[in-house]
Amino acid sequence: MALNETVRRVTRRIAERSAPLRRAYLERMAAAREAGPARAHLSCSGQAHAYAGAGPDQTALAEGRAPNLGIVTAYNDMLSAHRPYEDYPRLIREAARAAGATAQVAGGVPAMCDGVTQGAPGMELSLFSRDVVAMSAAVALSHDVFDAAVFLGVCDKIVPGLVIAAQAFGHLPAVFLPAGPMTSGLPNEEKARLRRQFARGEIGRKELLAAEMAAYHGPGTCTFYGTANTNQMLMEIMGLHLPGASFVNPGTELREALTREGARRALALTALGDEYTPVCEILDERAFVNGIVGLNATGGSTNLLIHLVAMARAGGIVLDWQDFSDLSEVTPLLARVYPNGLADVNQFHAAGGLACLIGELLEAGLLHPDTRTVAGRGLAAYTREPKLKDGALVWEEGARETLEPGILRPAGNPFQPSGGLRRLAGSLGTAVIKVSAVAPEHRVVEAPARVFHDLDEVKAAFRAGEFASDVVIVLRFQGPKATGMPELHSLTPILTILQGRGLKVALVTDGRMSGASGKVPAAIHVSPEALDGGPIARLRDGDVVRVDAEAGRLDVLAEGFAARVPAQADLSAHAAGTGRELFAAFRRNVSSAEAGASQFWE
Length: 602
Fold this sequence. Notes:
It contains 21 helices and 16 strands. The protein has helices at 5-35, 44-51, 58-63, 88-98, 114-117, 126-141, 158-168, 188-199, 205-215, 227-237, 253-268, 279-282, 285-298, 304-313, 321-330, 345-350, 353-363, 455-463, 480-483, 492-500, 584-589; strands spanning 68-73, 102-108, 148-152, 174-176, 372-373, 376-377, 384-389, 392-397, 421-426, 429-434, 444-452, 471-475, 505-509, 522-527, 544-548, 553-557.
């Protein structure tokens, strides 16, 4: 199938826009490649320091004839998604030794969970943790003693941060090793129902906790299709995972075999062999366009509209939200995974999963088929699935037809003809909205605004019964410069209840809504943010706001609006506590959400 013309046009537009930055980046990577790893040039003392803890690998490292693999890990045993990584370094070292090479843990990076910090002060560190992860991984690799790297990370900010760091060392090959989703527990829709009951006061905290524990019950990622699992899809469709690696459960023989093979593959891609494939040659404009197409086809997390912009910029590629919106128009929605449907990621995987979905998108001409990947050249390898046959890891052709059309559909019969992500623009600035789970009758909301500066104020107004008619809830001063752009997912039960009462309701915010954005239209990431004097700062209670996901508009219908003095907010309560005082410089220097909310680039 010929490449879709919009995909071709958007890719060309990105390449032209990015040309000077991309050229400079690739020149830096070429220079780093020529210099090679520094370990052979280290002083004897420097080498001794680098090898002192390597035990049986000391001699091999000192001789320096075989590749050395750096392991960057986000392991901790508090977060279910990262708990499986505890044993990965041992598996990777064993695989490296079997290949006549060595492997060392280069360093660790922090991994925080938005599920734990949701609605709490720690959430205000969440977005910034992405750049901390990137810097931590850069410190780990800065010893410059590695020929390739493997990255162990799964969740929301961790994978984007690791990708940013991998591109800073883009002359090295890089393979991302996932941990996989936990096995299915309490169905997501049942969990959501109980959350709504708790919000209405119909059940107590004991019942709610029992439900949450039944849903989140073991090692692995959460099983809904939020940011963590969207990250895994992206790493596969962009060529940094082994084919079919994303959604294999932890603790299985297949998962262990994929981890060992990932280490072997990273070693095979070094400049010391015949298949040298640095990450700077994998993550080009085509790979990022493939990622955006996958994001739309699966109804993925809105957080990636920020993260992909930052990830691309690390490789000298400039994305904007119009690229996402234009690709969304021609990308059919092929998957319904909670919160966009009832199924979880395990059910999606069983229905045919990414192998089937990638095959459909390739046949429809919606993916660049010739990108470089860690599996070789071309995405065709990603229509295959890993299997264990007589103890050996092999890849076989994946499902060519969906096994459950209520979860996964062919491109010729999608759930909807366009993807789930839209750019909004108008008199309130620019924003993004996810509509893959929003019913058509709810995609246009025009109603009076209720303006808030604090999440708890919204919840208090709900408990007081103040939302009795159609309403656009405006929650501002939540942007990156104001409070670190926290997720506001804990509003979801309230918004869903109001919509269920027959009200027209929407959310407008310069904060984030997370990968769990659901049935209520939410214009999020509003830019410029309120603290920058954006139009959202001039809104008042009662102003009529129109959120139009169909036309891509975000407007206020009020006389004399532009002449108003922007509101200000007392944010002193957000300046310190739970580590927030350590991130003051981040709040001062962060770029806009449109530019990736980054510390590194404007």
